[in-house]
Design goal:
This protein is of the alpha/beta class. It folds into two domains: about 500 residues, Rossmann fold, CATH 3.40.50.12780; about 130 residues, ANL, C-terminal domain (GMP Synthetase, Chain A, domain 3). Helices cover about 35% and strands about 20% of the residues. Helix 3 packs across helix 4, helix 8 crosses helix 9 and helix 14 packs across helix 16. The protein is globular. The two termini are about 35 Å apart. The N terminus and C terminus are likely disordered.
Amino acid sequence: MADVTLEALADEQRSFPPSPEFVANALVTDSSMHDLAAADPEAFWAAQARELLHWDRDFTTTCEWDLPFAKWFTDGQLNVSYNCLDRHVDAGHGDQIAFRWEGEPGDSRDITYAELLAEVSRTANALKELGVVKGDRVAIYMGMVLELPVAMLACARIGAAHSVVFGGFTADSLRDRINDAQAKVLVTGDGAWRRGGIVELKQIADEAMAETPSIEHCLVLRRTEQEVAMQTGRDVWWHDIVPTQSTECAPESMNAEDLLFILYTSGTTGHPKGIMHTTGGYLTQVAFTFKYVFDIHPDTDVFWCTADCGWVTGHSYIVYGPLANRATSVMYEGTPDYPAKDRFWSVVEKYGVTILYTAPTAIRTFRKWGSEFPAGHDLSSLRLLGSVGEPINPEAWIWYSEHIGTNRCPVVDTWWQTETGAIMISPLPGATVAKPGSATFPLPGIGADIVNDDGNAVGIPGGGYLTLTRPWPSMLRGIWGDPDRYRETYWSRFDGRYFAGDGAKRDADGYFWLLGRVDDIMLVAGHNISTTEVESALVSHPAVAEAAVVGKTDDTTGQAIAAFVILRAGHDPSDALVAELRDHVGHAIGPIAKPKSILFTEDLPKTRSGKIMRRLLRNVAEDEALGDVTTLADPSVVDGIKGRYLTTASDED
């Protein structure tokens, strides 16, 4: 499916082994864990479940597989909140800091494991007082405040499933998710801080709740202190009900296959998919991946995942993975550029962050802003860097390694999805030789393969569709209320395989290179060209900060490549630069990959989680009506691009 290019071959020749200093203290330093898992995957996962978690009742069955439905540890019982809090406090670690929270305005708060347990128990009792019982669903719509993970853990403690909705979504998006899950209670805030302004969470929630008949109560946290409407009988202030509760709340013993949470992700039909994750298998794999991918040493590390708890990355690697491993984590409320473009680096310096896990979009943005911002801070505490959310282009990987990790920190590029629940493909930093831009290999216990259009394995080297070949503990258990859609969406394309929706290739050494969503593969004159490869080639030019490319209909070649480019400071748009960039791509990949058009823009259409919405760029390039833009961080961006693009196209005609 994916052609091997000159650029890819050059990247495949660059390798970065872990330093002897890192290996000396690493948890995994060789292939023995991979070998053990390959010999008996089910026995491997059973051992991890027992080693990493406390079980109220041990399981006797590891995996039940009735394609496409899996159950893990079915007769075992445990409680997620207990595993994240009580057992650490009982073991004498109650004084260890669980979260070091940094508010956007500059306020901060540390909370220990003992304090977090008390707050979770009080909140769980408050939810009970509001009528929440085991099996109910609770919607959570908040900014990045400590009470967000508290609410999640409180739900887990009493056996209610939570549905966290990103605090930047609209009232319509919140309404649809509440109604689909039939949530009984909504937890929100008066507002949230973002770039010095206030996101009117309660006002948005009120608009949503006008059409959510299942909501009985709304629990409201006071954060920004502005006046908000409170409906008598429905709305309750957090500070009025939570602090008065007892700090004693016995954790509900849950079956391993009981629902832990629903998390909604975009669907091709326009109706969001409620991805279901259950208790035992999910917690096993997030605990395992957090421990070994990030080489966690809980007594000394300070971990910072810069995601939002409204996304799966926040669920797995801000809340459940770190707390299950007794880690100390940083949690930040705001944006990386407020009040200045060095905010992330000031946070790293202030808290002595040792492990940083962020997105390629953020890394490319930092690169665009310039290395002087991280250079102005002491980042010597860092020992490991991570990347998540989309394929990272090699130039961004190199910049990240050089300017943030000072060429001494391993970089773990991780591939996974909301649906997979936990990291699936990633280096083990003390054992894996990294290649910039490659997620390297499936983790122990994970089966992954690349197939062609007929579903046949393509071999090594080769490119095609990334599939998963066997069940894994943290896999989604279906789509809420729609098992047929689950089967059709994920299991119908290739017989017996989960199709991840991504294209990938393996180089001659077997390394996996993610190429983005398959609808981001362009067919130009019969050649498969990845958007990621062309974007990486553009970004490798010194004038380019960020780029997005899409395929547009072309009478001659079937599809032609349309590029949208953000320039770095000090570079101005010109016809000469267009020609230079086209030649640069042609040299890196081949003449077939030269963009037919290049439009310079100040910004790109991105979701609030930072992902580029190439679908909207395709709408622009094809002069089509724009689709759903509710998840855009700034909907005006695409209108500006469309106006400039159509003007440019008219001039070219």
